[in-house]
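Give me a protein, keeping tokens residue-aligned:
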Amino acid sequence: MEIVKDLKINENTSVKELVAQFGEMGGFTSKMFYDGVNIYKKMLNEKDCVKFLSFPACICATGVRGIIKDMVKNRKLDVIITTCGMVDHDLARLWGNYYQGRFDVDDKELHKKGINRLGNVFVPNDDYGIILEKKLLPIIEKICKDKKDWSTRDLLWAIGEAISQEKNAEDSIIYWAWKNKVPIFIPGPTDGSFGAQIWMFYQNNRDFRFNLLKDEQDLSDIIYEAKKTGALMLGGGISKHHVIWWNQFREGLDYAIQITTAPEWDGSLSGAQTREAISWGKIKEEAKHITIPGEVTIILPLLYAASL
């Protein structure tokens, strides 16, 4: 039994000092966050641990894209599993801009003005689908001219190399993934504008193929060669499931941190606590794991800052 202590904060309190106090305040989610930070730091410091990051595309429409980019740049992770829209947002923001908006806005008026709303982020058509068709489709046509069989990992690395001379290349997750040879796997590669550009290329190149089984083979090689594995899972869906699915074949993850806003009582994977995955053998019984309830754009920057 440890005594609950009051927080003490002043103008000089650092993020690390604040998080350290979370461990003593006995304060609901703050204590869970503190435990999550410690698990994450142990995972990062585990020399032989292959570190996975899974996340949905939407957060790359926000400034959290910069955190993920830094993780890749600074080699804080080894494998990314995400959704098609990550490519959309990462590349669209390379060539255009998204804007701060509001939730409480007239969506009919936005539609008339050619602005898509992603929560409280405004995404102009000109800086999304239109610019991707203008900029990305020619890249695909060039790199896929002779080679028509691609895994998502290899295609994204080729795109990362192709954009390396762009003015804002170093802001891109895909650029740094190519630069540092961090694999990005997209199990659902046609579910977004990136997939639409591939489909348009396919109209005149019917021999083009996404070789998803090549991705699965690459994941298999990573899993079976790993001495230990850990995962930071943001949200749920196909990205989270692909991480835990493959890790069941090595008797589960050794470390697991999930950040989610979803409840577990509807049976969704997004809301499923990390402890549920133990019953499936996707997280080890003795693993260090936690589910932190909260929204990623708040939790992830604090988690990353506290772990540096």
User: Anything to note?
Assistant: The first strand starts at residue 49 and ends at 55. The chain has a mean pLDDT of 97. DSSP finds 13 helices and eleven strands in the chain.
